[in-house]
UniProtKB/TrEMBL annotation:
Assigned keywords, A-Z: ATP-binding, Nucleotide-binding, Transport
Ranges for domain ABC transporter: 5-236
InterPro entries: AAA+_ATPase, ABC_transporter-like_ATP-bd, ABC_transporter-like_CS, P-loop_NTPase
Record protein name field: ABC transporter ATP-binding protein
Family statement: Belongs to the ABC transporter superfamily.
Highest taxon in the source lineage: Bacteria
Keyword ATP-binding among UniProt keywords: yes
Keyword tRNA-binding: no
């Protein structure tokens, strides 16, 4: 797959009289491939927004290389503008304009056919409120209008920062379906979000940033597999057998935690070791399954470790 976004060794330092020097990006790397929904994850203050602003040519980096659609940024930013749609900061609207008027104005300014207005309003679920004034919209509806503005020119790359902000569960699901449909149509979506369960369900790949550094990346399946817990949940035919089973497994070097209705076992290389150790004591497995690790667990583990390491080194992030 070709790379739509390539970032290598990105550094950005902010200086102010009040706060002194702050290193926002510290050699950050990221690659986003064409046709994917790519999740961009990091805690508040990790450097996500700075990275997105550099990608859009709104902030100049101190060092490193940034390429979008094969073109260098910021040198090619004026040429790239028509190929990129973005929702990065809370947009502002003319409160007395309707959604239709707002998008029509942008169409005229960007030489986009006005027929596109009805298409995108239908796409984001605002067709039935198209002629209502924006000041009557809820936060979630304004967020949908912002996404409509970002996709109006049908960009090759769509950058969305927290697009589900203010949406109810039905709206979040609709937004998820929209982003999947856009990617399936050939658009590349770079999604920054704090809703990690949605990212795990929607995204093809992810990059995790902490304290301005790349701490994890890959396809969602690979990231989950790479950071699997290595622990197994074991249920027997009777909960009364759990203490005996725990002693049998511990005796052969396994680490065992006894819960009310199951065992959690680690320290094994093959799952067959569990069955064999129990069978020698006349115990038989009713259920054996890997302990599930979600993207949220991995995110917290990687970002906590990175932050702790930076603090030990005395680096301000």
């Amino acid at each position: 797959m070709s790379a739509v976004v390539e970032i290598r060794g990105l550094r950005k330092t902010f200086r102010s009289v009040r706060r002194g020097t702050r290193l926002a990006l510290d050699g950050f790397d990221m690659t986003v491939h064409a046709g994917q929904v790519h999740g961009f994850l990091g805690p508040n203050g990790s450097g996500k927004s700075t990275t997105l602003r550099v990608l859009l040519g709104l902030t100049r980096a101190g060092a490193g290389e940034v390429r979008v659609l094969g073109e260098p940024v910021p040198q090619a930013s004026p040429r790239l503008a028509r190929h990129i749609g973005a929702l990065v900061e809370s947009p502002r609207f003319f409160p007395h304009f309707s959604a239709w008027d707002t998008l029509a104005l942008l169409c005229d300014a960007g030489r986009v056919p006005r027929s596109r207005v009805d298409e995108v309003l239908e796409l984001v679920g605002l067709a039935d409120r198209a002629r209502d004034r924006v000041r009557t919209y809820s936060l979630g509806m304004r967020q949908r209008l912002a996404v409509a503005m970002a996709v109006l020119k049908h960009p090759d790359l769509l950058i969305l920062d927290e697009p589900a902000n203010g949406l109810d569960p039905a709206g979040i699901r609709q937004m998820r379906d929209l982003m999947r449909a856009l990617a399936d149509s050939g658009m590349t979506v770079l999604l920054a979000s704090h809703i990690l369960a949605e990212v795990q369900q929607l995204c093809d790949s992810v990059t995790i940033i902490s304290s301005g550094r790349h701490v994890g990346a890959g396809s969602v399946a690979d990231v989950l597999s790479r950071h699997a817990s290595g622990r197994w949940r074991v249920r027997l035919e009777s909960a009364d057998e759990l203490p005996t089973a725990a002693r049998a497994l511990t005796a052969v070097g396994m680490r065992v935690t006894v819960l009310a209705d199951q065992l959690v076992v680690s320290g094994i290389t093959r799952t067959g070791e569990i069955s064999r150790a129990l069978a020698t004591h006349g115990l038989y497995v009713a259920e054996l399954s890997p302990e599930a690790v979600g993207l949220e667990d991995i995110f917290l583990r990687l970002t906590d470790a990175s932050t702790a390491g930076r603090h030990r080194l005395g680096v301000m992030a």
